[in-house]
Hints:
Elements: H1 37-42, H2 66-70, E1 78-83, H3 88-98, H4 101-114, E2 122-125, H5 130-136, H6 140-152, E3 160-161, H7 173-179, E4 184-185, E5 193-201, H8 205-217, E6 221-229
Parallel strand pairs: 1-6, 2-5, 5-6
Antiparallel strand pairs: 3-4
Amino acid sequence: MLWKxxxxxxxDIVKRALPGYCAFCLAPLEGHASWCSACYEQxxxxxxxxxxxxxxxxxxxxxxxGHCLSKRPAFEAAHxxxxxxxxxxxxxxxxxxxxxxxxxxxxxxxxLASLPSPPFDAILPVPMTPERARDRGFNxxxxxxxxxxxxxxxxxxxxxxxxxxxxxxxxxxQARFANLAGAFVVNSPPPAYVGIVDDVVTTGATxxxxxxxLRRAGARRVDIWAAARTPLVLD
Length: 235
């Protein structure tokens, strides 16, 4: 039975994920994959999408989304293969808010399946301030970056966050960008090509602020590498 047939509201995917069985439907597996081919094909793939920010496009005839056409972000491209829909949103919640490592492993595997040879010189996790990190006890972006780096061989580069501000989830698009102005400090010369790692991209405001800081410090190209993309906040 595929994941689309699950009972509505079922969200704890990790409890269903057993070694040797599909993480989404529990079908027996052959080989080392964590999912069966049928479930993999039915995942909410982010297509068509803006190649620059990863936002959903209305059709294949569009080249860029309206926001990227009107104001180009500081990052160059978004490698975000999936949309923040079931069952990916359930995986993200299990990982981000309950710190379940199996959910994080599945997200890493999906990110690497969609970008098997990361082109970056280094990957950079979205940082938290020390105070926020102590409050949360867990930085999901850093966990993902460490695991992705271990599996791909790409080193990790980190920057300092000096301004946390209110939660981005409560802000509209314009406020998100303003909230992050000057929030990041690059204390050492960055590699030429940096991939910003995060679990979910919404407006791209965080990546834009990070990319500005990195490019001012000497990086030549900055991309986003994330697990999922939410619909863009339009206001």
